Amino acid sequence: MQLSEQEVIRREKLGKLRELGINPYPAELYPVDTTSKEIKNDYEEGKKVTIAGRLMSRRIQGKASFAEIQDSEGRIQVYFNRDEICTGEDKTLYNEVYKKLLDIGDIIGIEGELFTTQVGEKTVMVKNFKMLSKALRPLPLPKQDSEGKVFDEFNDPELRYRQRYVDLVVNPKVKETFIKRTKITNSIREFYNNRGYLEVETPILQPIPGGAAARPFLTHHNALNIPLYLRIANELYLKRLIVGGFDGVYEFSKDFRNEGMDRTHNPEFTVMELYVAYKDYNWMMDTTEQLLEKVAMDANGSTKVTVGNHEIEFKAPYPRVPILEAIKIHTGVDVSQMEENELRETAKKLGIEVDDTMGVGKLIDEIFGEKCEHHYIQPTFITDYPKEMSPLTKEHRTNPRLTERFELMVNGKELANAYSELNDPIDQRERFEDQLRLSEKGDDEAMFIDQDFLRALEYGMPPTSGIGIGIDRLVMLMTNNSSIQEVLFFPQMRPEKKAVQLSDNEKAIYDILKKKKSMSLDSLKTQSGLSNKAWDKGIKGLTSQNLAKVQKENDALLVSLTE
């Protein structure tokens, strides 16, 4: 393992701590009795406290030092004084341990008394401190120059998502996002629990990936010797519980879809699904408005939420627009009576990429997604989807070509999907068979036929309304984040590239190229200051590792980075 200079120094300090008989990673309980927030909110001069946290800054001035420690609630100033800590002749704890062996990032425990500095800062006077965990890597802390400019911030998205543990330490606003996420889920739970609905759990490993049109992840169970799928939705299991006699059930479900990744899609995501007996999609629209009003108030103290350049109002009521009407409004084309071939040609004329595997439902979905969706910034229910788009939805009571379904659009994206649930087992079987035909045409997102679910319906399911709300997208809205990666602690990432170990000669050449990207071979050699032999080894090493390339341009040889 190649260590940086800082990492080497910290490991040397680790050894010195052990030589002094100090365990840098003690096992026993540390009796913390307060937090930085409690100290500030319930301040009492002279009060004895025991606090623990991460050392984030310090200013050593001889035998005294002001520092800051950070705990789960924020930061608090602490004051180290040699004579307060080392009351006897032995000053090792301050002179050696604190001044020389402690580093920014180390986690320490502090026993002390509260006092207020001359400038009014609430501070802990350290009477004793203990090493609780030695940090072997330096934190990437931002620095500020004399003009107030901040540099060295830990703000590269890929690094932040890969090393969320560092991100949370050095970027306090990130922590606020995840605290708010918990407030949002707690708010939803409170809303449903107060109405008597039961929170349940359903299988993640499923023999049939049902409840949605999506490409699943496939695995294999060795003991049973059967294929299993990570669930793409929990809908069919929750409806089985309605058949079983529960009037209202909900679940915060981890779902998995083996599809693309972008700013609003992660292969693993969280959905809240609710099913309530004896209700329909009109009732569900009213209930969803009430829920989102409450969530906005609980998360932000207002029904108005700033998202990017928009102020979004979650106060009810929300507009309700049939999907075919929305397409007509935004394209000028009435697709309500079109069959599959005509729809495909219409989509092509609108500049939408389609293929022969797409049926009526997918074609309408593509047209709406490309031409309409982005117009709906304020919460809007898009309703009454064609039957081909909604294989689990009850036929519309006034138009047999449509279904009683809505999607809630907010900020140009789908936030929720809801139905009057199909409870006719014969109709449901026919819809599944239609999906099977789409699968045979090559649609790898078409639904499987779930025979056990059909059997459950044959025992009788009461009229039911169900909804799925994308929790990750809801948190994005409520926290003003434009990327799903910002609201997931550990988003899925591409495999991390292994660090390439460069020789001193290779590094000297590479560092020059990093600034210029491309330059003449002669100029690069001159600037490197290397001997002919060292130069040859260095440039050959970089090209063999595919980090640099040499190519002829006109009569000159140019060297450039390949990244």
UniProtKB/TrEMBL annotation:
Name of a matching Pfam family: tRNA_anti-codon
Cofactor comment text: Binds 3 Mg(2+) ions per subunit.
UniProt GO molecular function: lysine-tRNA ligase activity
Record-listed E.C. numbers: 6.1.1.6
Named cofactor requirement(s): Mg(2+)
Positions annotated to bind Mg(2+) 1: 407, 414
Domain Aminoacyl-transfer RNA synthetases class-II family profile: 181-495
Transmembrane annotation, as ranges: none
Major location (coarse): cytoplasm
SUPFAM superfamilies registered for this protein in UniProt: Class II aaRS and biotin synthetases, Nucleic acid-binding proteins
Sequence positions that bind Mg(2+) 2: 414
Subcellular location: Cytoplasm
Family: Belongs to the class-II aminoacyl-tRNA synthetase family.
NCBIfam families: lysS_bact (TIGR00499), PRK00484.1 (NF001756)
Name of the molecule in the record: Lysine--tRNA ligase
Species: Maribacter flavus
